[in-house]
Amino acid sequence: MNHAQSKITKTILIGTSLRNLPIQRHFAALGRELINSGYTVALIVYGPVDASLEVDPRVSVLNWPSPRPTHLADVLFFDSAVRRLRPCCLISNFGARNIMMTIGGLRRVPVRIHWHHTLSSQIENDWRDSPLRLRWLKLRARIPFRFITHAVANSNAAKQDVMTAFGVPAYKCQVFWNSVEDPWSQPALVSSSKISAPGSRPFLCVGRFAASKGQDVLLKAMAQVTARHPTANIEFIGEGVTKNACEEMARKMALGDRCRFRGLLPHPEVLARMAGALAVVVPSRSEAFGLVNIESMSVGIPVIGSNTGGIAEIVRDGVDGFLFPSGDSEALASRMMTLLENEPLQTQMGASARRRYMDYFESNRAVQTQARWIIEQVKKAVAGFASSGAGMAVPTRIVN
User: Cβ(240)–Cβ(210) under 8 Å?
Assistant: First the structure.
């Protein structure tokens, strides 16, 4: 039986991974909010599951057959799930997009939402394979985008990208900035956060090591900063393909113990180190949003970020921190030294950053707003099915 001819249920399927990271926690919280509104929710997860991530027991968890849902087994699995559960709404993220949106479109699921997190320019900057293969993948990606009913972008820059790169019309696009939980509501973080004396606080750079992330630009800027302030120091947190090159670059610049590479750290420790930093530097060449920006603001620490993409939407230059022209190490060094030399400005910008976070990026408020929007789209779409006799069934518990 065609999905459109069967009775639609109040079931929402969300494709995500279950790592204990901000985006994944966001969608777990969104599932909880939708359940509180009378819907049945299942997370369809891929990759390793982090047992430390708390998921509401009312939210069902289904597992894709493959670590990344791109195989025939995943197609058959998802098609079977749609036919069995008859969802009113699908929400895809990252690698789940192609199968969820294509099958959802062919099966005529009323609402099909893809959450767009990454700019095409970021992928191009970091691409190390054949240019022809990249072109093929971009062309192929246009297929699932033809089946979406809505594209949610995490910034206006991401909205423009989804329109330009994938041909999605503006009327299908919605912008919701990313959000994170208030870290000061976590007693363990508050107790572990060691705020250093102003003169010894480091700059901090958190993120994947890749060409698009611009750590090399920051190292050039740091060499200029230490020439004037020999005791200034910086910590890098993260791993990635350009980390070894950056470590070698730091050695050649004789930054010595002024520059430390910490590798991957547990998220609570990352937040604690942010809270003890002078500023968080985000030197990306291209960035759809950059969660690290609002994480820094959530602990009351100013951001020095590239004036590009979503960063320019988040950080108000001269208010919550500084913006600098992407790739300009001299301008970055100047901003770093201005903040380093002005402790009252550090305090003022940190307080402003914290207020902006609470007003726009705190998770509880964002999740409620997004859940209301999703429900509104479902009601509009299902109304058409109801007029054709399809209707909507009462939700039932999904059993994995």
Answer: yes
Q: What is the pLDDT of residues 143-158, one digit of tens each?
A: 999 999 999 999 999 9
Q: How far apart are CA 292 and CA 281, in angstroms?
A: 9
Name every residue whose Cβ is closer than 8 Å to that of residue 357 and which is 6 or more positions away in sequence.
294, 297, 298
Domains, the chain, ordered by start: 3-178+363-393 (3.40.50.2000), 183-360 (3.40.50.2000)
For the whole model, what pTM was predicted?
Answer: 0.86
Radius of gyration over alpha carbons of the chain, in Å? 22
Amino acid at 253: M
Q: Which amino acid is at 218?
A: L
What sections of the chain are H helices per DSSP? 22-36, 72-85, 97-106, 120-126, 131-147, 156-166, 187-192, 215-228, 243-252, 267-275, 291-298, 311-314, 329-340, 343-360, 363-387
Is residue 205 within 8 Å of 191, Cβ to Cβ? Answer: no
Q: Per DSSP, what are the bridge partners of residue 305?
A: 282, 323
Q: Is 65 exposed, middle or buried (0-12, 13-18, 19+ CB in 10 A)?
A: middle
| 3 state SS for 140-176 | HHHHHHHHCCEEEECCHHHHHHHHHHHCCCHHHEEEC
Residues 284-329: tens digit of each pLDDT: 999 999 999 999 999 999 999 999 999 999 999 999 999 999 999 9
CB-based contacts of 339, cutoff 8 Å, min separation 6: 278, 279, 302, 304, 321, 322, 345, 346, 349
Distances (CA, A) of 373 to 25, 150, 221: 19, 11, 43
